[in-house]
Amino acid sequence: MDLKLYDTLTRDKRVFAPIHPARVRMYVCGPTVYDFAHIGNARPVIVFDVLYRLLRYLYGADHVTYVRNITDVDDKINARAAERGISIRDLTEETYNNFKEDVTALGCLPPTVEPRATEHIEEMKALIERLVASGNAYVAEEHVLFSVPSMKDYGKLSNRPLDEMIAGARIDVASYKRDPMDFVLWKPSNRGDPSWASPCHIRMPGRPGWHIECSAMSWKHLGESFDIHGGGIDLVFPHHENEVAQSCCAFHTKVMANFWMHNGFLQVEGEKMSKSLGNFTIIRDVLADWSGDVVRLAMLSSHYRQPINWTLKGLEVAEKALASFFDAASAEADLRPAPTVLEALLDDINTPKAITEMHGLKNAVGRRTLAGTLRFFGFCPDDLKAWQAKHVPEPSLPAEEIETRIAARNAARAARNFAESDRIRDELAKLGVLLKDSKDGTTWEVAR
Ligand code: AMP
Ligand code: ZN
Q: Within a domain: residue 221?
């Protein structure tokens, strides 16, 4: 069966075939490293990790190159480093290490390459020089600008009317721009901020614009055209539109990437996440309360192109589902998704359908395939057990008191006084202590 993916550029779901049959190449825009990543940032990381796993399964792990960049040149980075009184390198190192810890806990494989913008300045300058030489960019007041009217097809990816694009890009109508839509490829640095020798005979040192970073890093690691380019839906315009403009004009190619994939946005309890609303949630804090696998399953419960409403309820449902999968799955299996799960994923990564299919495998026949499917997704029963062992909630009663009540309940049951035994059980449940009866006796656990 074929893999079908939705392409933002052509606005349809098409059969995926890599440009080189034995070399699948995917680029996803990564984090700007100035602070802890939030739970919205976790969405593209998890979604494209599932696609990466699927591509590795279909084409072989050695035949897939996944590049996710690190944006370590940015005004927010400069401002934060100054605010904290630390060097930019220390800030970006610390933030990147935190990000790596977070996404590892979320069960994501490391990409093949994680290029840093600051290590690709030469490639950016080479691209800029090419664009000036081809008449697609020009130098003005120490800046290099991309000339939007020089590209006939500009705007195809986002497909918006010009006035909307101008409004959306919050365009700064600087006097040196020939056209208000023109965007920065290179600009002077503020005093004290990182700077590099400029291209195009500009004497003042400067720094690259954001969009050129991704054109340069994808070129270096994947070539002039590649298979899949991904990121959140907010990046379609202007970031990805401008990447297409830069790369296609510099290389005289028709396409930068054959498939453009974008994840929908995440909202928290039905509201846009923002610091001012006080619902801004970083991955680190979510991981203090929930295991990474639960967070991952909750994230995959919505289709990646739909918006996702991030709720406590969703996490609770995911935790129950995951525990039921681990209970039902056999201990050993090969890394192999069940055919019905694979079918769902081949249809534009339909993870909600895949999860429904997994529930159908919780029986004697499905045990082994379920275990293989869990491994395929990167879920690990030992991780959940270890997490639960570390996060046992404190009971609201002393343990001896609970044992005394269990003994009283057992005595009531022995005397066939079930009204009394039920009363004791219900009272404990109200206090958050759940009893579990088995043939070996009664155990208790604290409800979460
Ligand atoms: P940033 O560090 O803001 O450039 O974002 C890194 C990645 O996270 C990009 O692919 C964004 O599109 C994505 N992203 C940011 N906020 C959200 C959100 N609330 N929901 C889903 N994706 C997001
Ligand atoms: Zn990018």
A: yes
